[in-house]
Each structure stands twice: as C-alpha cells, then as structure tokens.
Automatic annotation (TrEMBL):
This is S-(hydroxymethyl)glutathione dehydrogenase. It catalyses: S-(hydroxymethyl)glutathione + NAD(+) = S-formylglutathione + NADH + H(+); S-nitrosoglutathione + NADH + H(+) = S-(hydroxysulfenamide)glutathione + NAD(+); a secondary alcohol + NAD(+) = a ketone + NADH + H(+); a primary alcohol + NAD(+) = an aldehyde + NADH + H(+). Coiled coil: none annotated. Its cofactor is Zn(2+). The lineage of its organism: Eukaryota, Fungi, Dikarya, Basidiomycota, Agaricomycotina. The keyword Acyltransferase does not apply. It comes from Dacryopinax primogenitus (strain DJM 731) (Brown rot fungus).
Amino acid sequence: TTGKTITCLAAVAWEPGKPVTLETVEVAPPKAHEVRIHILHTGICHTDAYTLSGQDSEGKFPCILGHEGGGIVESVGEGVTDVKPGDHVIPLYTAECRECVYCKSGKSNLCIKVRATQGQGVMPDGTPRFKCKGQDVYHFMGTSTFSQYTVVADVSVVAVNPQAPLDKVCLLGCGITTAWGAVTKLPGVEGSTVGVFGCGCIGLGVLNGARFKKASRIIAIDTNPKKKEWAEKFGATEFVNPTDLPEGKRIQDHLVEITDGGLDFTFDCTGNVNVMRAALEASHRGWGVSTVIGVAAAGKEISTRPFQLVTGRTWRGTAFGGIKGRTELPGLVEDYLAGKMKVDEYVTHRRELRDLAAGFDDMHDGECIRCVVDM
Ligand code: NAD
Ligand code: AHE
Ligand code: ZN
C-alpha cells in the first residue's frame, strides 16, 4: 500500500517533567512490515508517568507516550499478513516475532526482534513516523498510543475479537494482562496462599488471577485504607494495612506470623524496593516464590540477606506477565468476554484526548485505578 501521511491530534511529551500538550502531528504511512492504527482509546499507566518524569533511561524527547491502547487498523505496509485494515487491534509493547531466540526458547516472552530500535524511540528502519512542527517526534515502547494514529511493527500488534469493547480491552495492552499473567502462569497457585503488595491496577489484577486459580488464602496489603474494599471485590480474602501494625512491627514479620511460616506466593505491585524486600521475606521458607512486577525509580536497588535465598525462597520478576501477545492476548480477550476476568471494573476515570494531561493527575488520586482516554 502506498498510503498518505495523516494529520491528526496527539498528546506530545516535549521534555521531561513537563505535562504533555495537545498538538497536530503528521503520521507517515506504514513501511514494509508496519501497521498504521487508528487509536480509539488508551489507558494511562504509571510507566508513562515514569518516562515523562525523566527517570527512564530509555526516555527520548520529544515523544508520544502511551502503551495501553485499542484501535482499528487503518492501513498496512508491504508484507503484513496477520492484520488487515478494519481489524480491531491492541498494540504490543512486548513484541512476538516467533523467530528470535527468545520466541523460540519456550522460556520467555521477551522477543528481541524490534527491542533495540523500540528502546531508541524509532521504527525498525531507524526512523520515526511522527512529525510535529516540522520536527521528528520519537515513538515510545513501540506503541505511542497517545496519538489518534500511530505506526507499529507488525510483530507488535494483535487482532482481537471485534465484539470486545475497545474502551475496556485497551487495558489488556498493559496493566491487567501483566498482573493476570504474573499469577496465572505460575504453577501451583491452586490451594496455595498468596500475598499481594499494592492494590492499584496491577495488584487488583493479581488478586483477581489468584482467585481465578483458586488460591486458598489471598492477603492484600496496602497502606491506603480505601483499598480494602477494592481488594475484596477482586479476590482478597484478607486485607492488611502495614500502617496499622504496632510501632516497629515489620509487615513481613506480621505476615509470617499470621500464615504460620510465610506465604507460598507473594507479588510486589508497588515499585517500591523496600516493599519488594518485604514481599520476598514474607514468602515461605523452603519454597516461597516472590515476583517483582513494580518498576522501581531509576537508580534504586533491591537487597535482602542472602540467607533468605539460601533457605529456599525464589526471587523472580515478570514483564507483561510473561504473556506472548500475538499468541495469547486474543485468548485473554475471550476470557474477559466469557466473564472469567474482570476488566470493566478497573475503569474509574475517563477523559477526552484534549484533557489527557489531566489523566496523569488522576493517577495520584488514591481513588483512581485506571483512567481511559477517548481519542
Ligand atoms: P498504583 O499506584 O495504582 O498502585 C500502587 C498501590 O501500592 C497503591 O494502591 C498504593 O497505595 C500502594 N502502596 C504504595 N506504597 C505501599 C507500601 N509501602 N505498602 C503497600 N502498598 C503500598 O500502580 P499500578 O498501576 O498498580 O502499578 C504498580 C507498579 O507496576 C508500577 O511500578 C508500574 O510501573 C508497574 N508495572 C509493571 C509492569 C511490568 O510489566 N512489569 C507493567 C505495568 C505496570
Ligand atoms: N525502560 C525502563 C524499564 C521499564 C520497564 O521495566 N518496563 C517494563 C514494562 S512496564 C509497563 O508498564 C518491561 O516490560 N520491561 C521489559 C522491557 O523489555 O522493557 C528502564 O529503566 O530502562
Ligand atoms: Zn504499563
């Protein structure tokens, strides 16, 4: 296809630490193995805020952020076989080429086909497709969903059931899928005890997945008392607020006590390195498995006594919940349509594209789980 450049609106991040602004941008047609998508809805994730703050070592400015989107294919470049104009799609920040050593390993979802250029804010040929005021604008996470039109690599997009509402399943582009995969792909959750630190979108998704996998006891931990009701709705059988503990009592010690030795599985869903440590140390001696999901601020490091690992605890982490997007995401959309997985319930705020910057402020409101932006 030899398409034309499209002029549309986008929220542009000009420099770190400054709010995104609404701009008219030019979006070049897709080249070979690229797909141009009309984005209809996008969530705002903490990782967008993290990069906008200037903390992300991969942050390149000016850029168009956003990686939790849903839209319709507008046109495709040469050689694109898996999606066609009109398909309802979700862009994938974790690509799946099915050819690289990671894809073929059967051990990881971290495809490397386009990862290097993705981290540099450009398409696989080394150039961006966006321009604003005559200047090149970088892509972000291979998705850039804060634009009415975006271009992605064909390995970075998947078609989903068109009956699924895109203003909801856009959230499967990051938060919910990450959380759901992180727990449901772990062997042995059925009948086990689970501890979830942090009850934002990610933590609630883990709670929901733990209930789906029939964990026997699901303890939610959050410093915000308002999260108790949320946690219980998504699957928690108990809620602990660490700030309610007696002075000097550490959350991990409390959890080890009330679970007679620790939890079988714990998850950090906060991005706070002290919480990551507490989650590891709250897991059971001999077999506890603790998963890091939260993204810590640049320069932060985790620590614990090595004895914690010597005595049989496992510290692991996951990106995009270990989900292979092209192969597995359509099935998650079906699980949602079949009522197995909550999605609608995460949407607490809605914004128009012109107010997208205010959606970043919503995230700091203790009541916001996800803000969905109508593009
Ligand atoms: P959020 O801010 O909505 O939720 C965090 C929750 O943690 C809040 O409810 C907060 O009250 C609670 N919290 C804060 N400090 C705490 C403490 N000391 N103890 C217990 N609870 C505490 O964030 P979110 O959208 O759910 O994202 C969580 C993290 O996951 C972020 O760091 C985000 O960047 C990361 N993330 C990672 C991936 C991945 O692929 N690994 C994907 C998406 C998001
Ligand atoms: N680029 C950052 C790291 C950011 C990060 O850890 N990203 C997660 C997804 S967060 C989604 O909200 C991830 O998937 N990482 C794996 C990958 O390949 O990027 C930095 O610090 O450099
Ligand atoms: Zn995200």
